[in-house]
């Protein structure tokens, strides 16, 4: 590992989990939860789709995690490691809206992805608004050389459009 990336460990399990610990002793868990079911009825083939979840597992400081330049590079390294394990998969990221800070999370995630996706990956954004006006930002990350790139991205966009119209 380089100095700008925390050492991380893949532990697998039902959530394909990775863990790393920051210099502040904050433990992060990055999970990749199987969500292939979301494409059911939208494609004629099975997709290896996973929702990426970034979670603070333990925070002994009791404070909001400080800005840490190693976190984005570590998450990018974990992301790339996960794609090596299942090359034709796609990853979906949904910005947590439980504290109404989803727009800030989207901006941060967009910055991270843009800095690290290079020419290898594409990111397709979408959003869904519920009856209360809450906007759920999400993104599909897919390798550009995925043989089903067009079909999967079109299905993701169609899925978001249909969900946005739900009564």
Explain this structure.
The chain is of the alpha+beta class. The protein has one domain (8-164): 3-Layer(aba) Sandwich (Aminopeptidase), CATH 3.40.630. The chain is built from 3 helices and 7 strands. It has helices at 70-85, 102-116, 149-164; strands spanning 8-12, 17-21, 27-34, 49-58, 90-94, 121-129, 135-143. It has a 7-stranded mixed β-sheet with strand order 1-2-3-4-5-7-6, sandwiched between helices. β1 and β2 (17-21) form a beta hairpin. The longest helix is centred in the middle third of the chain and has 16 residues, at 70-85. It starts with 7 loop residues before the first strand and ends with a helix. 20% of the residues are buried. The mean pLDDT is 86.
Task: Give short descriptive properties of this protein.
167 residues, alpha+beta, Aminopeptidase, seven-stranded mixed sheet, globular
